Amino acid sequence: MGHDGRRLAVKVQHAGLRESGDVDVATIGVAADILRYFAPDYDYRWVVDETRTNLPLVRHSLVYIQPCISTLPNLRRNRCFAARPRLLLARQ
After folding, report:
1. Measured between alpha carbons, how far is 29 from 23 in angstroms, rounded to an integer?
2. What residue spans define the domains of the chain?
3. Is the pTM of this model over 0.90?
């Protein structure tokens, strides 16, 4: 709860997120290479490419939250309860 009683959702990104994400992509790449070596019919390099493309977008809160906000009109048309969050950015 916020100081004024409103419900809050908080997304916290830890220091070093960019570096650890790069390691994660490299690890997925090694795993995909090993799988392809032992099972040539299974090529999962596309997962590495997709992760490399989309991980920077997920790191950015505005890009991450935009699809959630853009679905609100559709949810309301279908009589689903939806609350539009107020976005507050804080950097430290």
Report:
1. 10
2. 17-77
3. no
